[in-house]
Amino acid sequence: MNFKGVPLYKAQSSIPANAIFDDPAKLLEACLEYFKWNDENPLAQQKVGFSQGEAVHTTIYHPRAMTSSALSMFLGITHQTLIEWKKTRSDLKPVIDWVESYIWNQKYCNAAAGLLSPNIIARELGLADKKIHTVSAPAMIIKPPGGEPEEAPPIHGE
Q1: pLDDT at position 2, please?
Q2: Against a cut of 0.90, is the pTM above it?
């Protein structure tokens, strides 16, 4: 099947969703079609530069980040259906687990190579650095709504 240039909302697996539900091998086949569609439909960015005083138009292709939501659309099911299959269908769970691992790896490798935004992908994959910021303001007076201000706590050394 040739998907070149087909937007996601029009792209769909050649295997109907009811067949996917009945057979894990068909689900895997349909997921592999999504991976192929994803590879054949990178995101295109138009760049304009200048060479010898002339405007030069260039198209730069970027990989499309895979997602389980986009996979669900491609399969012709809701994302919630995919989640439910993973929870309730022991025959489909190994395929879904493998597919999710493949999608995670695709994002990680492309972000590590600088082909996808490392910050966005790191947050989505749960890899972002988490920092906890605390503020100490010992002389701050807190006034409850409609009440009198509380006495400021003593400052260190007082």
Answers
A1: 47
A2: no
